[in-house]
Structures are given as structure tokens and as C-alpha cells.
Design goal:
By secondary structure, the protein is mainly alpha-helical. It has 13 helices and three strands. The chain has helices at 2-15, 20-39, 50-62, 67-86, 113-120, 128-143, 147-151, 180-192, 194-197, 217-231, 239-252, 257-264, 269-290; strands at 158-159, 164-168, 173-177. Strands 1-2-3 form a three-stranded antiparallel beta sheet. Helix 6 (128-143) crosses helix 11 (239-252). It starts with a helix and ends with a helix.
Amino acid sequence: MQEFLDGFVISMVSEHSKSKNTILSYKRDIAQFIEYLHKSGIDDIADTNRAVILTYLFSLRQAGKAPSTVSRSLASIRAFFMYIIDSGVTMKDPTLNLEAPQAAKKLPNTLTTREIDFLLAQPKCVDAKGYRDKAMLELLYATGIKVSELINLNVDDINLQAGYLICRTHTHERVVPVGHAAVTAVKNYLERARGNMLMDNNIRFLFLNCNGTKLSRQGFWKILKQYQKNAHIDKDITPYTLRHSFAIHLLENGADLKAIQQMLGHSDISTTQVYSQMVDKRIKSVYEKAHPRA
């Protein structure tokens, strides 16, 4: 198979004008693949099939290779077989419609309801900043909206009397219910704090920074990390942690997955189903700890 590798490298140099680093990467990937074939007892390149390549890619993942490395290896192998078939070898392309195996998705980090209570209790409503921070945290957990959606909310986007807010994007908008605690926190912020922070009456953003302008994502991040520290929560909390906690707590208390999908704004239900997996794992863990014959 070495002659195929040599010819492949030459073709890369002369016909495709690839960079030196790219050619070296392709050469290294194919040399490693050929070594795997030899160890698997495959000495004729035409005997390589789809299953062999998939098994090789899985072996790379099991060896701890990054998904990007596995994908690059597949790209190299695909280019290699295109060269072989163009060279006149009679065989079906074993890489046709083949995709690199995906790494298992990491389950999102969430807070317990007790940890949520500790976190939401941190902002002290003694000044404008405290009222604002209390309202932001309560609203995030109550609705599951993203931080980008939070900081882009306008005053007119939330209806405190009816208990809902409207999230708008470039392509669509969705209506999300707002619970009593969040409604109270936002109402207090509007009545007792926002006017003191506002420098220009033309600014309609709901949440403002200390300069009276739109709060940034980075600004919110710093606020959240400080309250995490104050609450003595060891978990790594990000703005998405509140969104994930919102979803998992709803699901644990019997909410419909389709309704959660709509509130989160997921276009595909499969994105929301990861929370079902988390609940299933928690239920199994409780069962194994509690049942005498588990």
C-alpha cells in the first residue's frame, strides 16, 4: 500500500496545491490508517470496506483523540480513496456518505432547587443594583430565556399584569410565562430602581448597567459569578446553568416536554430531550439507592 500513499502525496503536491502542513497531515493520517489495516490483516487496499473504516475511527475516539482529529482523519481517508479509485483500482468507495462518529454529548450542568434558592437570595434590595440583579436572576430562572434574550428585552416586552414576556429574534418570536416571584422582582425594579439608573428616556432596554445604558453579556457574567461566590456554590455556574435548571426542574415536576421546547425556543425536540435523559438518570440513581433489590 506504500505505493498508493507515495502517489497520493505526489498528487497532493502537483495537482491540488495543498499547503505543506496540510500535505504532512494527510500523509501522517494515511500512514497511521495503513498501519491499522496491516494489523487488522488487510494487505489489499481493495478489501477495505465501510465497517473497517468506522472501526478505525471508533478506535481513534477510544484512544482519546479529539472529535476534530477524527473528522480530519476521515477527510484524509476520503481523499485517499478518491485518489485510489481515480488511479484505476476497481472498488466501491468505502467512505461514501460516511460520517465521523460523534462524541457523546456532555449533559448540561444544573443546580438543585436548594442551590437556586441560595443563589436567588444573594442580591440585596437595598439599592438600584440589588433590585436590578434580583429581577434579572429571578427572570432567568422563571423563564429559561438566554442571557442574550434577557439583555435585549425592552420594557414593552414584558407584561407584568398578565405574567408573560415576549422574546424576539430575527426570524420569530415566542411568548413565555413569567411566575409570581419574577413578576414581583421585575415590578420592584421598575418602580424603585430603573428610573434612578436611566440617563436617557429614549433607552427602552429593560435592564441597564450603572451608566444607564444596555447591560452587556460580559457584565451579566461578572454579576452572576459574584453571586455564585457569595452563595458558596462550588459548581461552575454559567448563564446557561439557570436555563438548564429551569428546564430540568419543570420536567421533574411533570411538565410536558413539548411545552418546555416551546418555552426554550428549541426548533427541534431532540435538543430538549437531553433533559429527559437527565431525569431518567436521576430516577435510576434514586431507585438503585432506595430499592432493597436494586
